């Protein structure tokens, strides 16, 4: 062990020889030989060869940063400003389609649907919702009434509601398109609602679930709800709800983009205030709209979480001694994390990467990582000799903290890379963004955060207007900072 010098070793506590049996003596002898052989191998190979080189690189980097503080303070700000310009393209990079984000990219269901579309192509001139390979593009209205919707007054109101929907107009650019220009139908006319053609203006006895007449048979199970039938018969006595469907075209023509603009949000539901009929609606995009509203509902929770994390970081670095407190360094650590997030998001947006709502939780995770790195840097700074110059202290800080922070960054990057290989679109962009932000925290936290603390220390050392202060307590070596001709300054 004398040849190992400054190395740390594991020593096995061996009781007195007289207290050991022959078996235990042999066991401890083997343990000692194993440790001796292991240490000899470690000395020969040099187990810290990589750590020494990394530590040396970080020490050089820390000394360089400490010698040129303003360059490494201003450069990250300018770089973050330039990369943050990618948020200008945020609206164009949004990708919140539920099917695209929450289903496998190469799933078997998508392959089968593609085969069905190629084998059984749709015919917009002979529309039938039974031939749709998807849910289609549609809007549906549900009219309900406590007294029943099959009364003459309720049916008249529902018929007027249907005519209002069919007279809706969509403005796209400098042109206007009516519902008749976008609707899916057969033989040049929009697909009708059979329940209205059967009931409005006619006194018929409806049967459920199929209604048979001279013009053909019509299914009513998708149009009537809350149906009450006659005893032992299929005749309808009353119904509490009627559902109306309005399908839009899905062809490859120029009007396809207009179908997404045809919404029921602006529809004047004047009949909803009628006491006899209540109207509600949904569309094929309703789930998508609700999904897009979800981030707004958790903003308060995220704001509270950010406030708690930032407050905790500041309080943890606060000391009763105004000289030794690191409150400004803690604030700078939070700011460096924010700059890293801004740069990471902006860079990927500039590279035309999609932005999904699930990536909105990435800043909170990155904030925790950034605060962790900040605490490591502050702890390593406090372990340096206060008699050394600021560049030397920063070099020692980077040498001690750089290796551990780099290893953590590398393991996180590998874990996020595994997430990027996921077949789900909602997992890939957040993994990519988190990886970029994590690497940004590694760079910005070391340069911008370290420089801010460096400038504070330089400002503290370069004070020349200090007056002699009578010491009222015994000062330790950690509390004294000598700076040349200016004497001794209480720290």
UniProtKB/TrEMBL annotation:
What keywords appear on the UniProt entry? Answer: Glycoprotein, Membrane, Transmembrane, Transmembrane helix
- Membrane topology classification: Multi-pass membrane protein
Primary localization: membrane
Any keyword Protease?
A: no
Where is the chain membrane-spanning? Answer: 297-315, 327-351, 363-381, 401-420
Asked whether the UniProt record includes Glycoprotein among its keywords, one would answer yes
The record ties this protein, via InterPro entries, to: Patched_domain-protein, PTHD_SSD, SSD
Top-level lineage group: Eukaryota
Q: Where is the signal peptide?
A: none
Q: What positions does the domain SSD occupy?
A: 298-428
Where does the record say this protein resides? Membrane
Which terms in the GO cellular component ontology are assigned? Answer: membrane
In the record, the note on similarity to other proteins reads: Belongs to the patched family.
PANTHER family in the record: PATCHED DOMAIN-CONTAINING PROTEIN 3 (PTHR10796:SF60), PATCHED-RELATED (PTHR10796)
Identify this protein by name.
SSD domain-containing protein
């Amino acid at each position: 062990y004398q040849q190992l010098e400054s190395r740390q070793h594991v020593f096995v506590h061996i009781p007195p020889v007289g207290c050991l049996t022959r078996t235990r003596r042999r066991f401890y002898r083997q343990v000692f030989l194993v440790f001796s052989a292991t240490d000899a191998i470690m000395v020969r190979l040099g187990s810290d060869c990589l750590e020494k080189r990394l530590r040396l690189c970080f020490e050089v980097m820390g000394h360089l940063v400490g010698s040129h503080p303003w360059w490494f303070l201003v450069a990250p700000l300018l770089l973050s400003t330039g990369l943050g310009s990618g948020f200008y393209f945020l609206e164009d990079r949004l990708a919140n389609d539920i099917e695209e984000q929450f289903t496998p990219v190469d799933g078997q269901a998508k392959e089968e649907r593609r085969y069905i579309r190629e084998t059984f192509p749709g015919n917009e001139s002979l529309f039938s919702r039974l031939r749709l390979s998807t849910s289609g593009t549609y809007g549906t209205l549900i009219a309900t009434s406590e007294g029943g919707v099959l009364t003459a007054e309720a049916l008249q109101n529902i018929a007027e509601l249907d005519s209002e929907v069919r007279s809706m107009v969509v403005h796209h650019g400098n042109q206007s398109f009516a519902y008749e220009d976008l609707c899916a139908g057969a033989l040049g006319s929009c697909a009708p609602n059979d329940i209205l053609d059967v009931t409005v203006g006619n006194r018929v006895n409806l049967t459920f679930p199929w209604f048979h007449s001279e013009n053909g048979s019509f299914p009513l199970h998708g149009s009537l709800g809350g149906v009450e039938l006659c005893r032992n018969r299929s005749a309808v006595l009353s119904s509490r709800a009627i559902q109306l469907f309005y399908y839009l075209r899905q062809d490859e023509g120029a009007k396809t983009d207009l179908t997404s603009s045809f919404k029921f949000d602006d529809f004047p539901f004047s009949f909803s205030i009628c006491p006899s009929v209540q109207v509600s609606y949904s569309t094929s995009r309703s789930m998508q709209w609700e999904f897009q509203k979800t981030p707004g509902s958790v903003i308060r929770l995220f704001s509270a979480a950010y406030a708690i994390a930032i407050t905790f970081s500041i309080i943890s670095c606060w000391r009763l001694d105004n000289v030794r407190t690191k409150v400004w360094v803690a604030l700078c650590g939070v700011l460096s994390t924010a700059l890293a997030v801004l740069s990471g998001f902006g860079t990927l947006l500039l590279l035309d990467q999609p932005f999904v709502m699930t990536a909105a939780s990435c800043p909170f995770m990155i904030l925790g990582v950034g605060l962790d790195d900040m605490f490591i840097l502050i702890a390593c700074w406090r372990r340096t000799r206060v008699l050394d110059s600021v560049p030397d202290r920063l070099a020692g800080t980077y040498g001690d903290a750089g290796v551990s922070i780099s290893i953590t960054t590398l393991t996180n990057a590998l874990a996020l890379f595994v997430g990027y290989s996921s077949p789900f679109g909602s997992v890939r962009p957040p993994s990519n963004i988190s990886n970029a932000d994590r690497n940004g925290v590694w760079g910005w936290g070391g340069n911008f955060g370290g420089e801010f603390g460096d400038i504070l220390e330089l400002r503290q050392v370069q004070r020349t207007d200090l007056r002699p202060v009578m010491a009222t307590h015994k000062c330790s070596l950690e509390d004294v900072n000598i700076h040349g001709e200016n004497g001794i300054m209480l720290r």
